[in-house]
Amino acid sequence: MIRVSWAALLSSPFNAVNGVKQGGVLSPVLFCIYIDGLLTKLSESGVGCNMGEDFLGALAYADDIVLIAPSPSAIA
Known about the structure:
The chain is α+β, with helices and mostly antiparallel strands. The protein contains 1 helix and 6 strands; from the N terminus they run ββαββββ. Helices cover 25% and strands 21% of the residues. The strands form 3 sheets. A two-stranded antiparallel sheet has the order 1-2. A two-stranded antiparallel ribbon has the order 3-4.
């Protein structure tokens, strides 16, 4: 069972039926395999920010991702 916390609100508990366990040995590898294709498609789509020739629409480190857009309406 998991719960989601957002802006000091807490959801009702629900079953997590997919995903990988936090701290699991395979979790980082599976995350990288999954997220690589997603980040590639995002870069190819042209959505987000670019600095010169470099795409900066998403920054990823370990299991954290930050999406970047030139304006609030561009990320919607």
